[in-house]
Amino acid sequence: MPRDILEERRKSISLAGGSLDCDKASLAGAVSQRACVYCGARVVLNPITDAFHLVHGPIGCASYTWDIRGSLSAGSELYRQSFSTDLRERDIVFGGEAKLRAGLREIAEIYRPPVIFIYATCVVGVIGDDVEAVAREAEKAYGIRVIVIQSPGFAGHKSLGYRLAGEALMKLLSPQADPASQPQARQPQARQPKVRGLNILGDYNLAGEMWIIKNYYREIGLPVIASFTGDSTCAELRKAPTAALNVVQCAGSMTYLAKRLEEEYGIPWIKASFFGLEDTARALRETVDLLGSAEERSRAEALIARESRRAEAAIKPYLPGLKGKKAAIFVGGGFKAISLIRQFRALGLETVLVGTQTGQKEEYEVMANLASPGTVILDDANPSELEAFMREKGADILVGGVKERPLAYKLGVAFCDHNHERQAPLAGFVGVENFTREIDLTINSPVWSYVQAAGVTLS
Amino acid sequence: MLDQTPKEIVARSGICINPLKTCQPVGALYAALGVSRCLPHSHGSQGCVSYHRTLLTRHFKEPAVASSSSFTEGASVFGGGANLKQSVKNIFDVYNPDIIAVHTTCLSETIGDDLGSFIQELDLPEGKIVVHCNTPSYVGSHVTGFGQMVAGFVKYLAKKEEKSDQIGVFPGFVNPGDIRELRRLLALMGVSAIILPDPSDVLDGPMTGAYQMFPEGGTSLREIAALGGVKRALALGLLASKEPALALKSKCGVETDLCPQPMGVANTDAFLMRLSAISGQPIARELELERGRLLDLMLDANQYYYQKKVAIFGDPDTVIGLTTMALELGLTPKYLATGTPWEGFVTEVKTILGQYDALEGTRVKAGTDFFELHQWIKNEPVDLLIGTSYGKQIAKAEDIPMVRAGFPILDRYGHAHHPLIGYEGARRLAELTLGALMDRYDRDCADEDLDVVL
């Protein structure tokens, strides 16, 4: 192991095979790539396009999360704007409730959204605002559902935020609490008749990926009832309890919600990944096996065969230029990392390093089994660790998010954004084509030759 | 995406919609990156630093490294002293900077952490330094946070005894490209200066195939100490450099001139005259020629600028500078807006507008947001927007051409490399503005109205 690794961090790093610590708080003083509870909750709820996302706290948290997630909408664009109570010193001293109350009134006057989410950030709990009470009051006064997410950054890391978002969504689905619903609709959802159809959980419609997945199901003949939360509306999400199956794409953010929906509405769930030909085909097959008729099964097979053929033909020209290259992966959740290892293998690349911000123990075990011996696996990595191991392993490309991009470039390593800044969809069969093209353009960019010509040795 | 913005303006007291500012800590973090081998440290929850690094990376397209005290529930109840202690130990053990620059957050300020005494109690390795500044997120904006951090360096490190025949320059909240231009102007005028902070080479580093956690750049600790003994200091940016100027005056008694950013012709003239007074040298011939070329361009194209209405928005110092520049070009500044709550902005801008007899029909506001700016525009449109990236949402909604300038610029490349200051900055701005106006005219007009031959 390289020398400059913090002693306490060694337990969070494994050279394939060994077990490792994860789901722990970040070390004080570490340059962590991880975000906070509020961020986790906001990421999950943000793509609900017609909801009003109000950040109760000083301005920073609202401005840093303003229209940065890349989720697309077919309808309302309310979610792309930034709303905050912008607490000032006076409010910290005298309390922020008055401002929140005024804010809710203004929202009701200007926007009249179906639902308001209030995210209470770090300082709100400390100054003792009773956000719930203000929310109930506003709900009564304006007939708008108001859901509070207590998401102070210090309460944990991003994973806790995912859970809180799950709880908020459960509240959204509960008709009893909706001031606008008719009395006859207020019956327990579990007793409402199920319809044949599925919900998609954990896809945020980055670059239109939810649309791609929905189109596959449409072609097969399986109705999609609700999508959590890419391009969703509050009304659509409220129909979710009638679905017969939940298909969970981003397990890191949505496992909690899937479990709650199973407990309270009796909806079984499966994990599925739509990244890579292999995983996409498997996801579609598993869904039709559980829900579909013989006819739908054959439609699914026809779709898989046709789309795989097309994707394989499209990526073929790129394969010789990618063969034998070494890949490093640093993404948010473990399930995506696993998919990426498979996808790289299918493209002829070897994964030499894999890390996540919030991976779970069992996911790290799967990674260790999938990856070749000697692959470095790390939880909650920081830039120095990524640098040290990418160098040691001679990585040619890093897959990560916005903070990792310039780090990779500085090291002379190619980069692909598999986070919220992806411009082309990377899910589904067409995603494989886009992913391959992106890997190719970054690994084989003409700029690298000039860099090398200047006498620079790359990683 | 802004079709929900209503035209009718109602007073709001509860919500900020689409902010034209962000919080103090990110400014403090940026300032600290301009000091040599310095690791900025955020004393608060771990999410803060992740956001700040992301924002800076998105603006500069460069790695931006900083650490966090990673507050837990416990720290938010019992105070963050233990977290700071552990952080400092870990940071010097592993990352080994020369100095850690701590800034506070809304959380650590509200629970009442006393950074001054925490730092005094630290057991530091030989030769290592920890400094701090207070940047509660509910006061000021990223601009004042920047000023607080620069002032923090001065308070901790500037030494009166270190006599220097240099001058000190606080460049304000500007890009690495501005710092390079500033350095060039100083050299041409024969003035030797200590610039604090200096993010050039840190946040515009070249591609070398090597990643350095602490790139070769930034003001050295030696230079910061020597700031205490400079013969005079120039503080550029009326808001961003105000605190550093006060700190240097009160700690070391250095006379400091607080001036607007040298953006546009008149401001650059005034700045160079100051340098000339300091060095006793006349204005360099090269700069006179540059000025001449700038005026030549402005004159050549003056009919395209003349009386075009413009909205300028962003940070106070930038908008103040750009307002002067816009007036010099013959544009009509219509809306001048900043999210930073500083009434001095309104006074300054109105004074400038008054000098050009251009006050009528304008709206000048501090502490406002993009939503209000958009409403103004909906009520009375403008021909051009000049400002930061989020303005593009208005530009698209209202189909108005836009010139990007200021912080942050997230949706384009290269801006941080170019100056807005000096005649060169003005020339670039003149060209960008002209390009935006003419491209739009070309798109919409009849062929014969804008031929290949002008």
Record the SSE blueprint.
The complex is a heterodimer of chains A (459) and B (454).
Chain A: E1 13-15, H1 37-45, E2 52-56, H2 60-64, E3 83-84, H3 89-94, H4 97-110, E4 115-120, H5 122-127, H6 131-142, E5 145-150, H7 158-173, E6 198-203, H8 209-220, E7 224-229, H9 234-237, E8 245-248, H10 251-265, E9 269-271, H11 277-291, H12 294-315, H13 319-322, E10 326-331, H14 334-347, E11 350-356, H15 361-370, E12 376-379, H16 383-393, E13 397-400, H17 404-410, E14 414-417, H18 428-443, H19 447-453
Parallel strand pairs in A: 2-3, 2-4, 4-5, 6-7, 6-8, 8-9, 10-11, 10-13, 11-12, 13-14
Antiparallel strand pairs in A: 1-12
Helix pairs in contact in A: 1-7, 4-6, 7-10, 8-12, 11-12, 12-18, 14-15
Chain B: E1 16-17, H1 24-33, E2 38-43, H2 46-60, E3 67-68, H3 73-78, H4 81-94, E4 99-104, H5 106-110, H6 115-120, E5 129-133, H7 142-157, E6 167-170, H8 176-188, E7 193-195, H9 221-227, E8 233-236, H10 242-252, E9 256-259, H11 265-279, H12 285-300, H13 302-305, E10 309-313, H14 316-329, E11 332-337, H15 343-355, E12 363-365, H16 370-379, E13 384-387, H17 392-398, E14 402-404, H18 422-444
Parallel strand pairs in B: 2-3, 2-4, 4-5, 6-7, 6-8, 8-9, 10-11, 10-13, 11-12, 13-14
Helix pairs in contact in B: 1-2, 1-7, 7-10, 12-18, 14-15
What does this structure look like?
- The complex is a heterodimer of chains A (459) and B (454).
- Chain A has 459 residues and is an alpha/beta fold.
- Chain A has three domains: 118 residues, Nitrogenase molybdenum iron protein domain (Rossmann fold); 144 residues, Rossmann fold; 125 residues, Rossmann fold (3-Layer(aba) Sandwich), CATH 3.40.50.
- Chain A contains 19 helices and 14 strands.
- In chain A, the strands form three sheets. Chain A has a six-stranded mixed β-sheet with strand order 1-12-11-10-13-14, sandwiched between helices. A four-stranded parallel β-sheet of chain A has the order 3-2-4-5, with helices on both faces.
- In chain A, helix 4 packs parallel to helix 6, helix 8 crosses helix 12 and helix 14 packs parallel to helix 15.
- The radius of gyration of chain A is 23 Å and the shape is globular.
- Chain B is an alpha/beta fold and 454 residues long.
- Chain B folds into three domains: 134 residues, Nitrogenase molybdenum iron protein domain (Rossmann fold); 113 residues, Nitrogenase molybdenum iron protein domain (Rossmann fold, 3-Layer(aba) Sandwich); 165 residues, Nitrogenase molybdenum iron protein domain (Rossmann fold).
- Chain B is 45% helix and 13% strand.
- Chain B is built from 18 helices and 14 strands.
- In chain B, the strands form three sheets. Chain B has a five-stranded parallel β-sheet, with helices on both faces.
- In chain B, helix 2 links the parallel strand 2 and strand 3.
- The longest helix of chain B is centred in the C-terminal third of the chain and has 23 residues.
- Chain B is globular and about 75 Å long.
- The chains are: A alpha/beta (459), B alpha/beta (454).
- Chains A and B meet through helix 1, helix 2, strand 3, helix 3 and helix 4 of A and strand 1, helix 2, strand 3, helix 3 and helix 4 of B.
